[in-house]
Amino acid sequence: MIGSWDKDTRDQILANLLRLDLNQLRYALETAHWSSFRRAATALGTTSSCVSRGVRALEGRIGFDLFERSSRGVCLTAQGKRFLNQVMPALAQIDFSIRSVRPQPNCLERALRIGTCGCLTRSVLDRLLDRLAPSDLASKFILNDGHRAFHLEAIRRLELDLALVPGTRAAPNMSHRVIEAEPLVVALPLGHDLLAHQEIQWSALSGQVLLFSMFDGGTDLAQICANVLGAQGIVPQFDVLPVLPDSLFHLVAAGRGASILPLSAYPAARHDVAFKPIAAPDQLMFVSLFWCPHNTRPDIEHVLEAARELSSLSNRGIGL
Q1: pLDDT in tens, 66-76
Q2: What is the mean pLDDT of residues 116-144?
Q3: Could you point out which of 69, 224, 260, 314 has its C-alpha 20 to 30 Å from the C-alpha of 22?
Q4: E-assigned strand segments in the chain
Q5: What CATH superfamily classification does 184-277 receive?
């Protein structure tokens, strides 16, 4: 492919690359993220004047302003936003090329790395692994708990092989398969007015304080619920707390609020909290398996085959 590029194309690419200083581009990307030269400098471990000068130099090289500057901070111009949105995929492709081409040890000598989202995906993972014969995984596997966004970024960086995450939405440059769905239930304190209902309508949660754990996938679940409630014009009152799910149920029992969880995470042993199903059979918590299509580990294919067997869902979903 390289040899097929004509001289004019190569010259044009090289001429434009000469306009760029990757360090200055890094300053611009951090500034766009933080909307502040000072906060970008803190993140980069340098001074705000250095970042400001670097961005200004980059703007001089490319011939247009990336940021509008004011006493309240900085924000991207329309041209700046378009430029950085187009630059990021190119940088991500360069990063991927370096990681994928760099010589690696025999892939089967290291463990298969699977990202999960705590209690939100644990039951799905159990059913997935039950379908795998011991010989299907030629190596051991390591589980990493974390958030959806964290896992997808790790797959892009080839730091994870697979990830089980809530939601159905696709991600750039990745393959995914929706493999299972679970109904959601509401956890309520004893004596709550909503316990008079056999099922809870989403609209009945308007005005309720909904508690979620910051850990074990609770942040992802809060996002799912925000999407569903927002689509119905309901502004949710969320409280995402730095407590584990068991402690969260103590808060529900004490009347601090309600909570929402997938059916598989239902703590049947609790007697101080009541659970009611949500009356929306078409709105389930879907779990998807993500992977990099360029990852050629043979044991990944065994997991994907098991996922195909496990998958028996409709096309409906609430996504993230």
Answers
A1: 999 988 889 99
A2: 82
A3: 69
A4: 67-70, 73-76, 112-116, 141-145, 162-166, 175-182, 184-189, 209-213, 237-241, 258-262, 273-277, 285-291
A5: Periplasmic binding protein-like II (3.40.190.10)
